[in-house]
Amino acid sequence: MTGVYCRVSTAKQGKDGYSLGQQEERGKAFAGSIGDNYEIYVEAKSGKKLEERNEWKRLEQDITDGRINRVWIIDGNRLSRKLLHSLQMLETFEKHGIEFYIDGKQVDFENSSDVMMYQIIQSVAEKDGKDIVIKGTAGLHACMDAGNLVYARLYGYEFQFNSQGKREVLTVPEQVRAIRRIF
What are the strands of the beta sheet with 2-8, ordered from one edge? Predict the structure, then answer.
């Protein structure tokens, strides 16, 4: 059975062709093209913290239990943006004899060039992730320096993107109750 692992961490990724729905459809099509059944693992989490990714843990358990013998992802950085985590995941695949595909191309564990290219791509993904944080932080500081109101996180509120891609501010009831108790 093919494990189709889909992950996003931002709303913008849906516009870049990496929406969860698009990943699922392409993963299903891949499994269908080789005549295999599939299990879908969907995660809307950052690729930085492996310990917080429950769907990855479920996939890993299914691999260990022998339910999954192949894993498909749309892009290497969907698995992780940290090289260390990517290597740990790769080790899990190798240990259990998992066939690993990135958008239809198999990573051949017997071919050192394939493994090296995967490692290089994951190193670049980690660097890109760090650059995103640096640029985002610089943008926030520029807004604050210009006197604009900037709030990346505000206790009692959360941000969501509506269907038009605009950010909306919503209250978090549990946090609102805590704020009311404080005041």
Answer: 38-44, 2-8, 70-73, 99-102, 105-107
The Cα–Cα gap between 4 and 165 comes to 26
Three-class DSSP category at 163? coil
Q: How far apart are CA 90 and CA 98, in angstroms?
A: 9
Per-residue pLDDT tens for 88-98? 888 999 999 99
Distance between CA 24 and CA 28 in Å, rounded?
Answer: 6
* C-alpha–C-alpha distance, residues 58 and 60, integer Å: 5
Q: What angle do CA 133, 53, 60 make, to 5 degrees?
A: 130
Does the pTM of the predicted model rise above 0.85? no
C-alpha torsion sign, points 64, 70, 72, 77: positive
Cβ burial 24-56 (10 Å sphere, 16+ → b, else e): bebbeebbeeeeeebbbbebeebbbebeebebb
From residue 54, give the alpha-carbon distance in Å to each of 22, 31, 73, 129, 160: 21, 23, 16, 21, 21
